[in-house]
Amino acid sequence: MIAQNFEYTVATSLAEAVNLLQKHGGRAKILAGGHSLIPMMKLRLATPEALIDIGRIPELSYVRQDGDMVCIGALATHHVVETSGVVMRHCQALADGAGLIGDIQVRNKGTIGGSIAHADPAADYPASILAFDATIVTLGPKGERLIPASKFFVDMLTTALEANEIVREIQIPVQSGKTGSAYLKMAQKASGFAICGAAAVVELDGSGAMAKVAIGITGVGNRAFRATEAEKALKGQKPTTDLLKRACEKASSGVIALEDIHASADYRLDLARIFARRAVEAAIERA
Ligand SMILES: Cc1cc2nc3c(=O)[nH]c(=O)nc-3n(C[C@H](O)[C@H](O)[C@H](O)COP(=O)(O)OP(=O)(O)OC[C@H]3O[C@@H](n4cnc5c(N)ncnc54)[C@H](O)[C@@H]3O)c2cc1C
Fold first, then answer.
1. How far is ligand 1, taken at its centre, from the CA of residue 240, in Å?
2. Is 159 in the pocket of ligand 1 (CB under 6 A)?
3. How far is the CA of 212 from the centre of ligand 1 (A)?
4. Which residues have C-beta within 8 Å of that of residue 33, sequence separation ≥ 6?
């Protein structure tokens, strides 16, 4: 199908993009990699009157360590995230997820800012963004806002972003001590989207017990979520096969799962338990 007519403007700075969003009063959309927005427009699921292309704003495609934070610019492509030494060193689960997105064309064009702003319930990044307790830095008419990941993903295709706000940066705290992280998924074969994806971040103390455990799950519910019941059952314990299995049985407690032609709700809930355990095991291995 063909998208409805729209105005197209190339923004040269984020401030200009925010002004243009203001001018259109919620009827314009930011264009980054276009890998989610353009298909939505072709299906007329999105009908913006204007597109504001931020893809050519210089210096928004960075990954750097700034003190105790890993800072990732909104325009960093999945390929940039996947291959960044800083990400691999400090938040490997995010690199794992980026490397599993779609195919090489999607990874070369799609951006981390676009992916989290789009908030597809089957997108890969949200699981790791939640597990790392990341902060989303946005820019709007009133200036910058820092949104904790736990407040950012609100519902299917819905985030805490205001209509005239732009994602500028994602900040992930540098993990301390003996910490490891991993992301694993069961992919839908044609698109690569997650039927279920799980990210785990585990910190081991001197005795080998899990001082910190965070598990993020995507693909299962309307939005990505933290498996808090499983985390509670694991925290402070020494990992054993039996404990991991019992604790991760709680990974999908209380979740209303999605159901579609790719997987039933029960299957997705089961995958959440299995992939949570596997991700925790892989994170422990790396810690
Ligand atoms: C064939 C195919 C396979 C895919 N497979 C996967 C997969 O396996 N896993 C996965 O996670 N994703 C997958 N995707 C989605 C892909 O990762 C997209 O690149 C991503 O979801 C959106 O990023 P984008 O830069 O293309 O954003 P765009 O399509 O340009 O924008 C998406 C939305 O975010 C908004 N937006 C973009 N940037 C910003 C910003 N900085 N601030 C505020 N709003 C912004 C836009 O207005 C729009 O509403 C796939 C896509 C395709 C086409």
1. 38
2. no
3. 31
4. 55, 77, 109, 110, 111, 114
| Ranges of the chain with pLDDT below 70 | none
Domains 7-53 and 63-173 share a fold: no
pLDDT of residue 58: 80
* CATH class of domain segment(s) 178-286: alpha beta
- Best of 8, 20, 37, 79 to mutate for ligand 1, by most ligand atoms within 8 A of CB? 37
Per CATH, which fold does 63-173 belong to? Answer: 3.30.465
| Domain layout of the chain by residue ranges | 7-53, 63-173, 178-286
Q: Are 106 and 78 in contact (CB under 8 A)?
A: yes
CATH 3.40.50.720 assigned to 7-53: no
What's the pTM?
Answer: 0.97
What values do phi and psi take at 197, rounded to 5?
A: -135, 140
pLDDT of residue 191: 87
DSSP string, the chain: --PPP-EEEE-SSHHHHHHHHHHHTT-EEEESS-TTHHHHHHTTS---SEEEE-TT-TT-S-EEEETTEEEEETT-BHHHHHH-HHHHHH-HHHHHHHHTSS-HHHHHH-BHHHHHHHT-TT-SHHHHHHHTT-EEEEEETTEEEEEEHHHHEEETTEES--TT-EEEEEEEEPPPSEEEEEEEEEE-TTT--EEEEEEEEEEE-TTS-EEEEEEEEESSSSS-EE-HHHHHHHTTSPP-HHHHHHHHTTTTTT------SS--HHHHHHHHHHHHHHHHHHHHHH-
At residue 2, the pLDDT reads: 87
Q: Answer yes or no: is the C-beta of 169 below 6 A from any ligand 1 atom.
A: no
Task: For the chain, give the number of residues.
Answer: 287
